[in-house]
Amino acid sequence: MQPIYFRGTQKLSKTERFFERLKETVKMGDLDKYGKMGVEALKEYTPKDTGKTADSWEYGIEHDKNGSTIYWYNTNNVNGVNIALILQYGHLKSSGYWVQGVDYINPAMKPVFDEIAKKAWREVERA
Q1: Domain count, the chain
Q2: Is position 12 within any domain?
Q3: What's the pLDDT score for residue 85?
Q4: What is the pTM of this model?
Q5: Is there a contact between 75 and 63 (Cβ–Cβ < 8 Å)?
Q6: Core vs surface per residue 77-116: b (16+ CB within 10 A) or e
Q7: What is the sign, positive or negative, of the torsion defined by CA atoms of 28, 113, 122, 14?
Q8: Position 15 in a domain
Q9: Contact 93/78 with Cβ under 8 angstroms?
Q10: Domain ranges, residue 67
């Protein structure tokens, strides 16, 4: 996400306060809630053979000076290959046969992203 910059000669204290409040709208508990929500959605939507890939979703939260980021990842790797990714994008089998991927990550995460956007918009309207 690119930062927003303001330039002007007027005092921007109200605008600055607005954006400081906006930055704090998604609190730590909310990030954890959305992280867990994403893991559950990914687990539900992941194609299942043994169920190992579906059970291998996790999330993390990183903070820096610009804000916080939630990221989701899958720990099921076989011979250095992330199985969740080859399920999503497809892969070439050793026999030379192409296995088409299935877009399951985007449909799984859409409701989570929609919920985050809805929450952020409610906070913008309150400000």
Answers
A1: 1
A2: no
A3: 97
A4: 0.75
A5: no
A6: eeeeebbbbebbeeeeeeeeeeeeeeebbeebbeebeeeb
A7: positive
A8: no
A9: no
A10: 27-126
